[in-house]
Amino acid sequence: MNSSVLQSVIVPETETLRGAMLSFDRSALRVVVICDEKRRLRGIATEGDVRRALLAGHGLLAPILPIANTNPVIGRTDMSRQELVNLLSERVYFLPVVNEEGIVEDILSFDKRTTIPIASPTVGERELRYVTDAVLSGWISSQGKYITAFEERFAEFCGTKYAVAVSNGTVALHLALTALGIGPEDEVIVPSLTFVATAAAVRHCHATPVFVDVEAATWNIEPAKIEAAITPRTRAIIPVHLYGVPCRMDVITKIAKERKLWVIEDAAEAHGAEFLGKRVGSLGHAGCFSFFGNKIITTGEGGMVVTDDEDLNSRLRVLRDHGMNPARRYWHDVVGYNYRMTNLQAAIGVAQLERWDQIIAAKDRIREWYDANLPQDLFEIARPTPDMRPVCWLYTVLLKDTANGLSRDSLLHALREKGVDCRPIFFPLPAMPPYFEDDWENRYPVTRRISEWGFSVPSSVELNWYELERVTGIILLLSGVGIEKESALHDSAGHLKYFP
């Protein structure tokens, strides 16, 4: 193990449960190795050990050593690699390796997963604590203190006055469109490359999505082509901040203002991204977010609409709750929807927001790793402009046609065969039956190219550097780069070069 990573899991025998939890976040290994002042092994404790201690009533400042395994299975530095590996099992997940003096020199871990997932939520003790509190309060449906807290804190996070929590990201889009009066005979401009929910929400309003090709640099809607798509029936534009890269919102909002159009940002994949120093979601008339399990901030399922417009905020809340008059219970002035979030989901959201900076920083490190270790002569990435501060939802690249004749789909198949989950970029919307357009291949050439060659690789916050190294190494070998390029990830001592 890299010495810096090892150092991050070693804690003193005086460490507290809180200190151990901080170590879990730093190392991503979910274990601490407890040592004396000479780094001799005293025991090990896992995240599960700490969670059980907290549930049993131990405080955050309680010492870690009494709840640790003080007699763990250990390896010795004079053992062969195979002998050490043989000690690992589903009962022995972590193996401290000590020298003849009992000083910890390494720790090995057992990974029971056969596949490195494309994305997985990072949910820990704080989320469990808040959900437990919500359950014990009796407020487990669509009312409770966590709903209000989540809305207030997410509005603050986005830099908007209001936030309205809903049951998922798709209904966030539908609710925003409906509250802005989008309906039959209306047209809404949508990028031709995005997840299908963006167009589906328009259809749910019985309106028509009008597609615009994306730009080659950012993979987002091409502002220069929006003007040509506007007709007398156009009412709104939905720019999508695809894979966490912001759209060029200054140009888009200028067009919208001149043509008197609504701007509804689809920021489902871009929590925390910024354009010209402002958070996405705050740049249009409304911003819509998803909190699905693979998103940067998650509530399992859930969504949010943010806005600075007081009247829009009021309409959103009425429509979200069956159209009920807020001043006259069970009196319904309009036809509404049951689009409410539960207090349990909001409790997870509050916990997530309390460490959003750690989550986004971890995502940034993942992006930096891939940027540094996937060669630019084989792979192309989206290129944000200097006024954009992107976030890494799923790290996504295009396989260049110079990649030794390798096709994107054959690469993805081979990655899955080797235990690395991966996803192709979304299909072009105008290629699919509900939205099909004749000659779409020629009408949306940039979308076609990105969709044909693009794919996403594992991007979970929980990924450790060994998993990232494994993913990168497999991609390099499969793409024909060879061992020479793979070995460039290490220094002369065999340690990872780019990250500690």
Characterise this structure.
The chain is of the alpha/beta class and 500 residues long. The protein has three domains: 3-109, CBS-domain (Roll); 125-353, Type I PLP-dependent aspartate aminotransferase-like (Major domain) (Aspartate Aminotransferase, domain 2, 3-Layer(aba) Sandwich); 356-487, Aspartate Aminotransferase, domain 1, CATH 3.90.1150. 36% of the residues lie in helices and 16% in strands. The protein has helices at 3-9, 17-27, 47-55, 81-87, 125-137, 145-158, 169-179, 197-204, 223-229, 249-259, 310-320, 343-353, 356-373, 408-417, 440-443, 445-453, 465-478, 483-487; strands at residues 10-12, 31-35, 41-46, 75-76, 94-98, 104-109, 162-166, 187-191, 208-212, 234-237, 262-266, 274-275, 278-279, 286-290, 303-307, 379-380, 388-389, 395-399, 423-424, 454-457. The strands form five sheets. The chain has a seven-stranded mixed beta sheet, with helices on both faces. Helix 6 (145-158) runs parallel beside helix 12, helix 7 packs across helix 8 (197-204) and helix 7 (169-179) packs across helix 11 (310-320). The longest helix is centred in the C-terminal third of the chain and has 18 residues, at 356-373. It is globular and about 80 Å long. Residues 482-500 have low confidence and may be disordered.
